Amino acid sequence: MIDDSKSRKIMTKPLPQILDELMDSNKSTNERIDRVEQIAQSALRLAELLKLAMTEGTSAVDKRLLQESSTKDKVQMEAETSSKES
Q: What angle do CA 63, 69, 70 make, to 5 degrees?
């Protein structure tokens, strides 16, 4: 048996009004989906920029460490050469 209070509640609005509400809801949902897509694309671009910055930063640090290591090796070799000559 159908509960009369539920039946009455469902059938209180005219069909055109219900359809208008559904269309408005659908439009609102589509707008939110578009906004989420924009946010996701922005997040992806930011992640790509961050990856690039980290790669460049790592490369710069590696280069600097290599230069420092090379300088230390030269100083050490010069010191060893000097001590042998003495």
A: 90
Helix ranges (DSSP H) in the chain: 4-10, 15-85
**Does the predicted TM-score (pTM) go above 0.70?**
no
Paired tokens of 81 = 């050469």
Counted residue by residue, the chain has a size of 86
Rounded CA-CA distance 83/86 in Å is: 5
Kindly state the DSSP code that residue 12 receives in the 8-state scheme: T
DSSP label at 1?
-
Per-residue model confidence as pLDDT tens digits over 18-73:
999 999 999 999 999 999 999 999 999 999 999 999 999 999 999 999 898 888 87
Q: Which among 53, 76, 73 has a CA at the least distance from the CA of 65? A: 73
- How far apart CA 62 and CA 53 sit, in angstroms, is 14
Tokens representing 20 are: 């208008």
